Amino acid sequence: MLRSVKFSTILFALALIVIACDQDKTSSKQTAQTPLANNSTDEITPKLNFPPDTGPLPKFDGDRAMQYTKEIVAYGPRPLGSANHKKVEEYILAHLKSDDVENDVFTADTPDGKFPVHNIVDKFPGTKEGIIVVASHYDTNYPLRNTSYVGANDGASTSALLLEMANQLRGKPNDGYSVWLVWDDAEESIRPDTEIPFEQDALYGIKHLAEKWESDGTLKKVKAFILADMIGDADLDIDRETNSTPWLEDVVYEAASRLGYQSHFFARRIEILDDHLPFLKRGVPSADLIDFSYGYNNVFWHTPQDTVDKLSAKSLEISGSTVLETIRILDKMEPLPPK
Ligand SMILES: [Zn+2]
């Protein structure tokens, strides 16, 4: 994933969470903490008119998503430029053979040289004008490339989540928005954040895609950008990320509530720098779904302890179903709130 941040003040809950400035992996990272906030909001959000019950609940096979996670992890570390990275690209593409896939391939100029970058976009058409994008990165942290770090939660679980979403979307009529799944690349920073600020040395793939879609006119059609990051933790507590668009986060919470999963969402607010930033910057409503409490004090994040035994099929099912239900609610909300 991403990068942690600064300060997030929870005015109403009198809670203060301090995520210490960005450090990478082994350095101390985080202080915290507080009474947990509830879902009360301190942002001004438009009043949302949620549609009535949207019919049969979405299906998402958490066991199959877990199997995909294990298969991705089995390749070993997959940092940018590595043979394993290439294998995982091919693994993802092999699952999308019958789909309409856009390959966004380019060369990134990084502090450690030039690297091939490959964003994969899998497109499922709908009959409504507009696109909902669901994204996750698949590379592993580059500074940890010579360790056993495999990013089971950070990258593999969410790449697997998208593969299972594709299974659920494939071949079914869709009278809502088009859904585009994006496996973005080169998300992780090349140098530790203590050397170069995260925003300048990370998110290479998603920045490129946002720029490309801005210049070719695609971006105007994107109604929402939903990012999945580190959402396979067996102890699932998805944070309310404060850079995200408040009304879209509210839709996610509504979706989780309809599935009975709301207790896994938004007990805490934090600010995260992540793949949603290039879309947010361009005015696309965006939500970063991330559980940044991976082990006590987030100790498994960016360490070789980020392994599949910390994850659960149930958490993948909760996350995947909630994203699918979010899309179904968005399909029926007329009109969507202004950006
Ligand atoms: Zn990461």
Q: How would you describe this structure to a colleague?
A:
The protein has 339 residues and is α/β, with parallel strands linked by helices. The protein has a single domain, classed as Zn peptidases (Aminopeptidase, 3-Layer(aba) Sandwich), CATH 3.40.630. Helices cover 27% and strands 21% of the residues. The chain contains seven helices and ten strands. The protein has helices at 62-73, 83-94, 152-169, 204-215, 246-258, 277-281, 313-332; strands at residues 7-10, 15-18, 100-110, 113-124, 128-137, 177-184, 222-229, 238-241, 265-270, 286-290. The strands form three sheets. Strands 3-4-6-5-7-10 form a six-stranded mixed beta sheet, sandwiched between helices. It has a two-stranded antiparallel ribbon with strand order 1-2. Helix 1 crosses helix 3 (152-169) and helix 1 (62-73) packs across helix 7 (313-332). The longest helix has 20 residues, at 313-332. The protein is globular and about 50 Å long. The chain starts with 6 loop residues before the first strand and ends in a 7-residue tail after the last helix. Residues 1-2, 141, 154, 188, 302 line the site of zinc ion. The site of zinc ion has 6 residues, from loops.
